[in-house]
Amino acid sequence: MGLARRNFLKNIGLAMAGTMMVRIPALGRAVMPGGDLLLARQPDTAWLASLYDRGQTTTYLKSRNELQYIGMPVGGILCGTVYLGGDGRLWLWDIFNLNQEGIEPKEVDWKEAVLGQAKKVRSRDGACYIQPSKDIRPLEQGMALKLTIGKETMVRPLDEASWPEIAFEATYPMATIRYIDPALPVELTLEAFSPFIPLNEDDSGLPVTLLSFHIRNKGKVPVEATLLGWLGNKAGIHHAKEDQHERVNTSAGGNGWKGVLSAVRAKDAASTAWQQSPDNGNLCLAALDDKATVITQLELPLTETSFSRSRQEAVVHRIKEKLIAGVAVRHRLLPGRDIRTDFAISWYFPNLSFKDIQGKGRYYANHFADAAAVVTYVREHHARLTADSRLWKTTWYDASLPWWLMERTFLNISTLATTTAHRFQSGRFYAWEGVGACEGTCTHVWQYAQAVGRIFPALERDTRQRVDLAIGMQPDGGILFRGEAEKRPAIDGQAGTVLRIYREHQMTTNDRFLRQNWPQIKKATQFIIRQDRNGDGLEDTPMENTLDAVWDGEIAWIAGLCIAAVQAGALMAAEVGDTAFADTCKAYVQKGRRNMETQLYNGEYFIHQPDKIKGRSVIGSYNTCHIDQVYGQSWAFQVGMDRVLDKEKTLSALRALWKYNFMEDVGPYLASHPGGRPYALPGEGGMILNTNPYKEAYPFGVKDAWQLGYFNECMSGFEHQVASHMMAEGMTTEALTLTKAVHDRYHAAKRNPFNEIECSDHYARAMASYGTFITACGFACHGPHQYIRFAPALQKENFRAPFVTAEGWGTYTQQQQQGRGNYRLALKHGQLSLRTCCFEQASPAAVVVKADARQLPATFTHENGRVTITLKQAVTLHAGETLQVTMTS
C-alpha cells in the first residue's frame, strides 16, 4: 500500500489533469474519520491521498455527540427491525407486523436551500434525512452492571448518560461498543449482532439479537460483577385490548440457558381471533448461562437489590400495566482475569401479511414454535453461529482496501434486517423499495442492489424463479415489475432482471437453474428485443422506468441496459446450446452498440433522442447529462462481461458526469434548482441525477411534471452505481471520492450511518454500493464453469480482500514485485471448486499452482495483461485450504 500511495502522491498532478480534474478541495463540510469537520482550504493532495489510506475502524464517540442517531439493524435478516443504539441499548422494535411507511412515519417542515420555500417532507421523501429519528422506544430494554469491590458497591446502567465515554465501532454486521471509565477497575466491552453468515440465509435469518459482554478486571483486588438485563412485555402492542387480553411472563430455559418468555393471551381460552392478530406472539430475554437468575417481574428503576432478587413463578398483568422481565448473571473476577457473558433477546411474531400478495406468515415460523425455541436453537449452536459470524467479520475487514470503503460498500446489506424486506413462510422473498413504501420487490429498483445476489444468492435465485419468471411472467415474455401488484413491465427492470438471472446462474455450481428456467429466460430476452420497433438495436417502445414515467424515443441509459441484457442472453443461450438464439442476440447487440455509439453520442456524453412524432412534448432526459447514461456497461462489469460500449466514449461520458453532475457542495446548485427531495443538503457533496450543460430552457421537454424533482436530487443508489463503474474503468480516485461523499453524508454526527434514504428508509437501491467493492477487486466468477478472476483496480502490488462464491468464501491475496507474482485464495468457509483462474500480470514465463503443498498440473495463456490458468483437473478447496499461484518472468 505504501508504494501505491507514494506513487499516487508523486503523480497526482498528472493524474488529475484536464477533464479528469478533481475539483474538490474538501467535499464541502465533509466529516473526516476523526469526526472533525474538514476545512475548506485543506490541500487537495492530502485529502485525496487520505482516500487511499487503509485507515481504521470508524469509531463514533459520546464525547463528540455521535451516538444519538445510530441505529444499526441487529435482528436476523428478513425478521423485522431492531436497532442497536450508539450506547448499546436496543430501540425502534419494528417487529410487530405493523407494515408502516418509514421507520418513523412523520412529516417535517423544510425550507428548500436559500430560496426559503417551505414544504412538508414525508417519510418517503426524506423526513429522516432532514430530521433523523432517535430514541424510539416502544418497550423497555436495557442492561446494567453492578460492581462490588470489597465493601463498596456501585450500579451503572449501560446507557449514554451513565458513562464518561462510550465508543461505537461501526463494523456491520457485528458492532463493538466500549464503555469507558478510567476510574473503574474493570474494562467492559459489548459485541452486539445477530448471526450473519454469507451463503447461509437460514442461520442469518434468526429473530434474535445477541449481546456478548466481555469484562476484564484490570485492578489489583477481586471484583464481583453482575450483569442484569431487562425487557418489557409488549406483545400485542397495537391490538391487545384491556377487556379481552392479559400479559403473561413465564420463566423459560433449556440446556445452558435461562430466561423469561413474555406474551399476551386471550382471557377467553376458546377465542381464536387473537391467534391471527399481527402482533400476537412473544419475546424472550435470556442469559446463555445455566447459573443465571430469572426475574419474571422486575421493578424499575433499579436498586442494588434488583440484582440479587429471583422470581420464577408466572406473572399475569392487565394490558395497561407494565410487566418487565429480568435476567442476571454474576461473576467473581480475580485480578487480571476476564469473562464473557452472552445474553439473547428473541422474538416470534409470525402473522405477517400484505393485501393481495401471494404469501403470508414468516419464514422463521417453519423452524420455531415460539421465541424460547429460538433461544434453544441459538444456545445449542452458539459456538458455530458466533464463530462463523466473527469469522465473516474478520474476513471482510481484513482487507488492504480503505477501511471506510469496506464499511460503506457492505453495510447497506443491513437493509435485509429491516422491514424493507421479508420472507414469507413459503420461503418467498418479498420486499418494498424502502421501509413500507412502493410494493412488490420492484424490478427497476432491486436490480441495482448488487449485495444480496453475492452474499445470499439462494434468495435471489429463488426470487427469479418463483416471482419474475412465474408470478410476474406474462405470455409475451414481459415481467410485471411489481409482481402481482402491477399490470405492466418496466423496460429497465426487465433488462436488469435478465442480467440478474445471468448473475444468479454464475452464483451456482451447475447449470440446473439455467436449464430449468431457460424457456422463460428466453421469452424475457425476446421481449426486450421486440421493444426495438424500428429495428436499429435501440429500444424505443414507450414503457415505464425507474423514474416513474413512460418515456418515448431512444434513450441511452435504457438502450444500453437492453444491449447488456441481450448480451447476457446470448451467453446463456450459448451455454444451453441454443445457438440460433445466441446468434439473434449477438446481431442485436452489435447493431445496438453501433447505433448507440453513433446516434446517441453527442461527442461528449450519451443522450436521449426524442421520438420522431412526439418530439420533446413528453418527459425525458434529452440533451442533459444523465447519471445512468452508460449503466449497461456498468452492469456488464458486475457479471464479468467485457465491453458492450466503446471504452473511450464510455470514459468520456463518465468524465462528463464528473464535470457536470458531481459537486463538492450541492447547496448552490439546489438553491437554483428547487423541487427535489432532500437527500443531500447544502454543505454536502454528491452527484446530481441530471444536469443541463446546454442551458436549455426546458431541458426535460415538459415544464410541469411531478417527476421533474428527481432530476435535481442526489440518490445514493445511483451514485453507488456510477462509482462502481468508474472504479471498473480506471477512474479510481473519482470512484472513491463519490463513495466518500455518500459516506460523509451519513456520518453519525449528522444522521444514522446505516440508513441510506431514498423513497423511504433503508432503500434497496443503496445496496448498489457492493458493486463498487466488486469492481475494486476486479472480481468475476462463474460457478458452473469453475472459474474465478481477480483484477484489482488499486493496490495491485499488495492487495488483499474477501471473496464470496456459490458455496464458499475466503480471502484473496495478491503480491507483485519485480516480475514475480503470488496469488493466493485462502478458503475460510464452505467449499470452492476451480478449473480456471485469471489474474493480471505481464507476460509470465512460468506458472506454478499448488493446493496447499500439492502441485497441480496446469497450462496458461496470456492476453492483454491477463493470465488465464487452466488446471488439468478441477480442484475443490475446503475451509482451511489454500490455492497458491506463483508466476515468474
UniProtKB/TrEMBL annotation:
Recorded GO MF terms: beta-glucosidase activity
UniProt cross-references to Gene3D superfamilies, sorted A to Z: 1.50.10.10
Matches recorded under SUPFAM superfamilies: Six-hairpin glycosidases (SSF48208)
Cited Pfam families: DUF608, Glyco_hydr_116N
Ranges of residues in domain Glycosyl-hydrolase family 116 N-terminal: 71-384
Domain Glycosyl-hydrolase family 116 catalytic region: residue ranges: 492-770
Gene Ontology biological-process entries: carbohydrate metabolic process
Matching InterPro entries: 6-hairpin_glycosidase_sf, 6hp_glycosidase-like_sf, GH116_catalytic, GH116_N, Non-lysos_glucosylceramidase
Superkingdom field: Bacteria
Protein name: Uncharacterized protein, contains GBA2_N and DUF608 domains
Organism: Chitinophaga eiseniae
Classification lineage: Bacteria, Pseudomonadati, Bacteroidota, Chitinophagia, Chitinophagales
